[in-house]
Amino acid sequence: MNTPDWLATELPILQAPMAGVQGSALAIAVCQGGGLGALPCAMLSGEEIREEVARIRAQTDRPFNLNFFAHAVPAPDPEREAAWRARFAAYYEEFGLDPASATGGPARRPFDAEIAALVRALRPPVVSFHFGLPADDLLAEVRSAGARILASATTVAEALWLEARGVDAIIAQGIEAGGHRGLFLSEDLDTQLGTLALVPQVVQAVRVPVIAAGGIADARGVHAALALGAAAAQVGTAYLLCPEATTRAVHRAALKSERARHTALTNVFSGRPARGIVNRLMTELGPMAADAPRFPLATAASAPLRAKAESLGVDDFSPLWAGQNTSGCREVPAADLTRALAGLA
Amino acid sequence: MNTPDWLATELPILQAPMAGVQGSALAIAVCQGGGLGALPCAMLSGEEIREEVARIRAQTDRPFNLNFFAHAVPAPDPEREAAWRARFAAYYEEFGLDPASATGGPARRPFDAEIAALVRALRPPVVSFHFGLPADDLLAEVRSAGARILASATTVAEALWLEARGVDAIIAQGIEAGGHRGLFLSEDLDTQLGTLALVPQVVQAVRVPVIAAGGIADARGVHAALALGAAAAQVGTAYLLCPEATTRAVHRAALKSERARHTALTNVFSGRPARGIVNRLMTELGPMAADAPRFPLATAASAPLRAKAESLGVDDFSPLWAGQNTSGCREVPAADLTRALAGLA
Predict the structure, then answer these.
(1) What is the pLDDT along chain B (345 residues), one digit of tens a residue?
(2) Which of A39, A220, A229, B340 is deepest in the core (most CB within 10 A)?
(3) Cβ contact (<8 Å) for A214 and B196?
(4) How far does the CA of residue B211 sit from the closest CA of chain A (Å)?
């Protein structure tokens, strides 16, 4: 497999940033294996980002990717949020929890001026965005910091939009992908394409390099992605069982079970469609709930339930993010998995 | 590209049978081009099947595929059907049609004893099934007639089910595919996988050869399918503009337009989920309507509207079947397209 020069890695493999299930350890291991490791930053404070980047640089001199979300923060909608919390009342009762505890939940911070200043200071080799791009002036700061800029597209229209704003490469995210879908120009899930259909159409539409993502679990999948015209492949789900990932116990167990064959797009955990293994909350409230508060405001309602249930070994309220192909999940060091994805022994 | 011996064609390309938009002419052209041409039989009478097979044999001595549906015929549900027809009342008024004319619509006949006898008489080289398989005794008749048996799977569970019943090869139909989805063990559309995720998992699960289908539009797509472990690729949508297809004018126009980028799974035309270019009926009643009569009983309601609208050049009520990758649709002879799909000039 050829690796394009612009990627500056040994192998044409990118590790998908996965907020909530990994930190610098996974990124470092992937970099050491020859791929592009990624640090998901959307759930980290500025100080945490600084510390994680320091850890990465202490362990590898290879390029790495800092990933940010570019969503618009929704206006609070107390009525909608209260109605949403009310749907959880029976669950709180069942687990003996106080509904008033549902005030927090993991925050997702969009890229802003403060983070742009941090990027200028940290000068990461690569920065990637999900859910579109930040405002032009902020994007210009990232560019002037010397970072190559990647962003996710789920349709040809999104790819053209990103190219017009000057991204260096486009991650074409097919419907198979686990976790949050990057869609940002339309909320209509029918616009979302399978990877095999999306990648060649994006390749045909844009001049910048295209990175294929979604359903790629092994070297055959990477070969297929390159055959479709992609310059490299981004892989997430396959890394979830690696020791360097922070994937929780209930999540690991679900990934190793037959249940992993059945995933769905759901918005009940965060307010945005994301693919995970079907579980109780998805079945009972969704998987797509028309009344869910907008991302990330839906998160608070299930957070205390998730913590309590997980402490009992129950995954009923946990986002069990996974793509449609968990056949590549292996409990091996991420560096080894990276090399295997590239067809090396 | 290598072609497996069992397929007995020159090229590893199968033309997807597409009821309603093609007959023997397309099958013949594909066979002459070196692929496996297919005749969709579900909307043909026994006599028509006989005539079409005679035409094929008069024009080519290469193998061909007779395709049948294996759905269970639903019990009539007059109340549900009347309620469904009532949803069309304003459309009938708009087009000056008598709602009482909605009594017919194209029939879809499942494989039965009479057709099995016909297959014994005709001895086609290949028979393929969609929506599962006919009863064991009927399947045994097809086998004893000497036909290789193919059938569609949309999940690993369906592939294992088909293999246990002795099919010779499995068509792994990914979510990108146009027209009717072959799903038969579950009606849950969340079980449906993208081709890039489905094919390698089916290949891993079964011992029989796997044919990849869904989103494959050109030689790159075929290469990708083979990289995933498929023995061959089945292509439908790309043939829809060929002169040998009987694709109607409104359908051809939609395929050539920007609208072709936006497809969805819909049951408003037939009662079963099928992928087509989004149009008025899909938008206003669906795309998935919980109250649609069971396949094929939903067809009658829109049939007169479709005929009238098409006569006016309007595609509001026409099933505009298409997969998620129409980039390969070309107005060239199907034999040429077949060779191009296999990477030949």
Answers:
(1) 889 888 999 999 999 999 999 999 999 999 999 999 999 999 999 999 999 999 999 999 999 999 999 999 999 899 999 999 999 999 999 999 998 887 766 678 899 999 999 999 999 999 999 999 999 999 999 999 999 999 999 999 999 999 999 999 999 999 999 999 999 999 999 999 999 999 999 999 999 999 999 999 999 999 999 999 999 999 999 999 999 999 999 999 999 999 999 999 999 999 999 999 999 999 999 999 999 999 999 999 999 999 999 999 999 999 999 999 999 999 999 999 999 999 997
(2) A39
(3) yes
(4) 15
In which residue are the tokens 């029939």 written? B107
B7 and B52 in a single domain? The answer is yes
**A190 and A313 both lie in a single domain:** no
| Contact residues, chain A, for B325 at CB < 8 Å | 193, 196-197, 200-201
**CB distance A221–B229 less than 8 Å?**
no
Q: Helices B46-59 and B24-33: crossing angle, nearest 10°?
A: 30
Question: Distance (Å, rounded) from C-alpha B90 to C-alpha A309?
Answer: 51
Q: Give the whole-angstrom CA distance, residue B168 versus residue B8.
A: 13
Do B223 and B307 lie in one domain? The reply is no
Question: Looking at the whole model, is its pTM more than 0.95?
Answer: yes
B182 plus B133 within the same structural domain: yes
Residues B4 and B133 in one domain: yes
Nearest by CB: A327 against B194, B201, B261: B201
- CA distance to B219, B313, B341, per residue, from B223 (Å): 6, 38, 9
Contact B66, B53 (CB under 8 A): yes
The complex's ipTM works out to 0.96
Chain A residues touching residue B185 (CB < 8 angstroms):
none
How many Cα atoms are found within 13 Å in the side-chain-facing hemisphere of B92? 16
The verdict on residue B172 lying in a domain is yes
Chain A residues within an 8 Å CB radius of B157: 261
- Per the domain annotation, does B251 fall within a domain? no
> Do B138 and B272 fall into the same domain?
no
Instruction: Say how many domains are in chain A.
Output: 2
Report yes or no: A55 and A64 within 8 Å, Cβ to Cβ. no
- The answer to whether residue B48 is domain-embedded is yes
Q: How many CB pairs under 8 A join A and B?
A: 125
Q: Decide if B264 and A201 are in contact by the 8 Å CB cutoff.
A: no
Residue A222 sits in a domain of what CATH number? 3.20.20.70
On whether both A186 and A317 belong to a single domain, the answer is: no
